Amino acid sequence: MAEETSWTDERLEKLRKLWDKGLSISQIGEELGVTRNAVAGKAHRLKLPKRQSPIAKTSAKKAPKIVESTKELPLRLALRQIKWSRSKCVWPHGDPKKVEFGFCSEPVLPGKPYCPEHCDLAYTTSRDGS
Predict the structure, then answer these.
(1) 89 and 115 in contact (C-beta within 8 Å)?
(2) Rounded CA separation 30/19 (Å)
(3) Helix axes 9-21 and 36-45, enclosed angle (nearest 10)
(4) Which residues in 115-126 are b (16+ Cβ under 10 Å) and which e?
């Protein structure tokens, strides 16, 4: 990267133009000879319009394909596809080391993490003293 790090009017104008073109922060940094953090900070201070994260765009476009091919994914990635909700039963089904692992997902009893069937298994009230 170049030694020039001061934000002259000319460099600020170039930053705005590159920003408007939609270049990534890293690409703008390379073009201007500064770090991506310098670009991000200056863009924030200049109140340039925020842009959606490229990560969010990528994952939103690919989400249906990932869900369809879960069995082909490594376990650590397949487990990320599990949908979590406080209103759904979290009783585990299957081996957590396998891609087919999941949760019951039936509606829960109020104040409990499980559905009625799994609450009966999880919470016992009898103490027979044996």
Answers:
(1) yes
(2) 13
(3) 90
(4) beebeeeeeeee
Q: Taking a C-beta distance cutoff of 8 angstroms, is the pair 112, 119 a contact?
A: yes
Tell me if 33 sits within 8 A of 8, measured CB to CB.
Answer: no
The per-type count for the chain, helices as H runs and strands as E runs, is 6, 2
- The whole-angstrom separation of Cα 86 and Cα 116 is 15
Q: What is the pLDDT along the chain (130 residues), one digit of tens a residue?
A: 445 568 999 999 999 999 888 888 888 989 999 998 999 899 999 998 887 666 655 554 544 444 445 556 776 777 677 777 788 898 888 887 777 778 888 999 888 889 999 988 888 776 665 5
* The one-letter amino acid at 92: P
Tokens encoding 51: 């842009």
